[in-house]
Amino acid sequence: QSDLPLPVSTRVFTVSNQKGGVGKTTTTVNLAAALARTGAHVLVVDLDPQGNASTALGIDHRAERQSVYDVLVGEMELGDVIQRSPENERLDCVPATIHLAGAEIELVSLVAREQRLRRALDRHLESMERPYDYVLIDCPPSLGLLTINAFVAAREVLIPIQCEYYALEGLSQLLRNIELIERHLNPDLRVSTILLTMYDSRTNLAQQVAQDVRDHFPAEVLKTIIPRSVRVSEAPSYGQSVISYDFSSSGSLSYREAAAEIALRGAPQPGKRS
Ligand code: ADP
Ligand code: MG
């Protein structure tokens, strides 16, 4: 427990980058666990058919379980499919199952197909006596309808960037897409947070990339950098965040620091753009 400030209203983040393997899921899970550990009530929405975030939180996401698929494509309410992570009583998860792989196509013919997650989430938050402090949505590595649903449901975008040569490539496309969503579907959406991940301080390249990203996005990049660490990559196979798996490891420490920065910065001012 610590005394980080809790947000006055729910902060909804989509963790997004159309590249795979950049640390989206790892960041979602570990930030969520770190925030829950400081006393916040946190929901992770797993929107990737792979279900890696569900696995990492120790959540059952076998095909026969009800999941976010039944909310997006079916008639289920979010509250009916939420499971509590065994790791922390304040950490909940909406699991993804493999059925979600077909949802991109099934959603196409549905009414308000871009708004399905937002409406389900809003209904659920309104029904709660004490709504979540944070909702983190883990996106698949694509810009299809699942990711669009995440962008429409969120107010903030968190972009994890891997400190390697191609990091900035593709970022401008992601930012253009976010701008399109902002213009047409969700005027409140802001890129509030950029997190440098898998940093190897021994290489000049990683330092150079980190500096480049900071030069481009001075306001958004967190001070904290997540180092490359074996403990971080081991934790999911135990169905745990690195915070629970090895509390004093460098990965746990850095994710706890990143969570503190996010909490202390607070939500972006409405209407204000950087
Ligand atoms: P994404 O969700 O963007 O596809 P993941 O979060 O699944 O990316 O990460 C990709 C791989 O990199 C995973 O095997 C994960 O365990 C590993 N990984 C992520 N962050 C770190 C880190 N800080 N140190 C070491 N390995 C990491
Ligand atoms: Mg992932």
UniProtKB/TrEMBL annotation:
The chain holds residues 101 to 374 of 374 of the full protein. Belongs to the ParA family. May play a role in septum formation. Signal peptide: none annotated. Residues 11-190 form the AAA domain. It comes from the Bacteria. This is Cellulose biosynthesis protein BcsQ. Coiled coil: none annotated. It comes from Agromyces atrinae.
